[in-house]
Amino acid sequence: MQQVQKKDIRSLSPEQLKQEFIAMGEPAFRAKQVYEWLWVKSCTDFDEMSNLSKPLREKLKEQFTINYVVVNQSQFSSDKTIKSTFRLYDGNIIEGVLIPATDRMTACVSSQVGCSLTCKFCATGYMERKRNLNADEIYDQVVLIDKQAKDNYNAPLTNIVYMGMGEPLLNYANVLKSIERITAPDGLNMAAKRITVSTAGIAKMIKKLGDDAVRFNLALSLHAANDEKRNTIMPINEQNSLKALAEALKYFYSKTKNPVTYEYIVFNDFNDNIDDAEELVRFCRHIPCKVNIIEYNPISFADFENAGVDKIEAFAAHLRKNGINTNIRRSRGKDIDAACGQLAVKS
Fold it and tell me: Which CATH superfamily is domain 70-336 in?
């Protein structure tokens, strides 16, 4: 006898779930109870749904599956950062990071298994992109990292950054659905302003974010405000030039009124002089923004070096002199390859 393919219950909307219950001859209000178990209580086992009868739980197990994510392995950095590998239902592995600080607990989550963008300075860019993550797989990372924060530091998550493996805007629908579940009152009920989605720069999808009037923060991995240099390290720039990105960002800002963060790694002898800083100043004139200068974290595949402290300070000083809100971000978790640009599942 052919085995019936079970439906992934978390892929269903509340209305779809209600229809499934009606089709099973169950009262519609049961769907609301199950939805709450799945998304408010983050339940991954039908047997734990204690306000459902045992026969109904058995019926659910026969027809549906919950493809939940589990922590495969965790590493603890000397600076208290925790990097975890997560195992997906199909055996694929992704990575996520908990970054604790005195005033916040930040989860860095992945949106794809691997990445297709081949940025030259990023370890994930040297991996093959296997598939997009489903919305519930992104949601599960947040739940699991929140548990790590509470278990290890007695504090809940305060912030989420989509800066792990993959390009979030190439998994647009699932990323937005995951944020909807994370921010919804019948979900994790986190504030959208506590969430930042980071992109390498896909102009048409940045415009789509504007059309969808998103409330979360947008960050652009810029790293050069000069097309020739950006093409060298980020091949995506060849189809998404700085001019195209500037137009898309203006459109995004006109629709959302959200300032954008530009992430800029200062590489030694590549994009670290005052002329480079001046090009960045000009790019920053397009819309309200701030700049995060990020420390480069070396990877074995690439031959880049972090610029010296004096050069980074001079670079930042030039931006500030021109009225640009600029932060220098120190990397966390470098000793366990958990820092920006270092996530790559070791086989």
Answer: Aldolase class I (3.20.20.70)
Are 314 and 280 spatial neighbours (Cβ–Cβ below 8 Å)? no
Give the pLDDT band (50/70/90) at residue 341: very low
* Structure tokens belonging to residue 259: 């300032």
Task: Show me where the domains of the chain are located.
Answer: 11-65, 70-336
The burial class, CB within 10 Å (0-12 / 13-18 / 19+), for 330 is exposed
Which tens digit of pLDDT belongs to each residue from 293-328? Answer: 988 877 666 678 888 889 999 999 999 999 999 999
Q: 225-248 burial, b for 16+ CB within 10 Å, e for fewer?
A: bbeebbeebbebbeebebebbbeb
d(Cα 49, Cα 37) in Å, to the nearest integer? 7
Pairing between β-strand 217-221 and β-strand 195-199 as defined by DSSP bridges: parallel
Instruction: Dump pLDDT digits (tens) for 234-263.
Output: 989 999 999 999 999 999 999 999 999 999
Identify the burial level of 75 via C-beta atoms within 10 angstroms of its C-beta, where 0-12 means exposed, 13-18 middle and 19 or more buried: middle
DSSP 283: H
**Cα gap 266→311, rounded to integer Å:** 9
Whole-angstrom Cα distance, residue 195 to residue 189? 12
- Residue 19 and residue 26: Cα distance in Å, rounded? 10
pLDDT-based confidence at residue 1 (cuts at 50, 70, 90): very low
| Catalytic site positions | 95, 340
Give the distance between the most distant pair of CA atoms in the chain: 74
d(CA 190, CA 50): 26
Query: What's the residue count for the chain?
Result: 347
Over 60: is that where the pLDDT of 333 sits? no
CA 17, 132, 11 angle in degrees (round to 5)?
5
Residue 141 clears pLDDT 70, i.e. is over it: yes
The CATH number of 11-65 is 1.10.150.530
